[in-house]
Amino acid sequence: MFSRPLTVLVGHFGSGKTEIALNGALDLAADGEAVTLADLDVVKPYFRSRSARHILAEAGVRLIAPEGENVYADLPIIVPQVRDILRQPQGKTILDVGGDGTGARVLGSLTDVLPTTGIEILVVLNFSRPSTPDTAGAVAMVHEIEAVARVRVTGLISNTHMMDDTTPEIILEGARLAVETGAALDLPVVAAAIHEDMAASVNGDLPCPAFILKRIVKPPFEVQPQRKTVGPLFVLN
Fold it and tell me: Which strands sit side by side in the sheet containing 35-40, from one edge to the other?
């Protein structure tokens, strides 16, 4: 995973795709690669690669994402920049793309500049989410993405989790369902993404390689407000 010049990560809301994209970009940068991460997710309101803008900048990762007053825009306004990158690639590029119909259409708008070699298009599966409750739902989602985006998916990533309520059993069952989905689609499961605090509990029992995640982006409800002292009072940011 992330071994080719271009990696496209596609997944429905809550799949954990963005966390995988961020970890992949930071891992590549740590290995000395020149990395560009393009945030093409026009679907999810909170979990977006652009939320980690400063972390990526410190690591030397080039982020292509809406800025300024458009930072939270639900519009594909950076597509022209991404097209330029795909025409003249430098180093490795990761595209973080939403997996519903709208997100897949954004990817479809790039098909004329997507390379025919050196590319992997990976669908992230989280079987604890309503959009993919079982193998049949996952197969249908992959077919929908391929039809709307006009691309051929090359592999799957298992990322079944329930955030802080994740157990080893949930991860292993998700990996099993991902393998079933792969068999139905004739696609490999290239990795199971696991947060680092769970890795020791399941790594040896997985049916595919593990991709260890660090928590990069926190949801808004987990971000604790900071306090500033103003005279005898505390004021919340």
Answer: 62-64, 35-40, 92-98, 6-11, 119-125, 155-158, 189-195, 210-213
DSSP letter (8 states) at residue 223: P
Which residues, 6 or more positions from 75, have their beta carbon under 8 angstroms from its beta carbon? Answer: 42, 66
* Bridge pairing between strands 233-236 and 227-230: antiparallel
Determine how many CB atoms are found less than 10 A away from the CB of residue 22: 29
Go through the domains of the chain in sequence order and give each one's CATH number. Answer: 6-236 (3.40.50.300)
The full length of the chain comes to 237
pLDDT values of the chain reduced to their tens digit, one per residue, 237 residues = 999 999 999 988 888 898 999 999 999 999 999 999 998 876 554 455 556 888 999 999 999 986 544 444 444 445 788 899 999 988 999 999 877 777 788 888 899 999 999 999 999 999 998 889 999 999 999 999 999 999 999 999 999 998 889 999 999 999 999 999 999 999 999 999 999 999 889 978 999 999 999 988 665 444 444 444 344 433 333
Residue 181: which H helix or E strand, with range?
Answer: helix 168-185
- The end-to-end CA distance of the chain, in Å, is 40
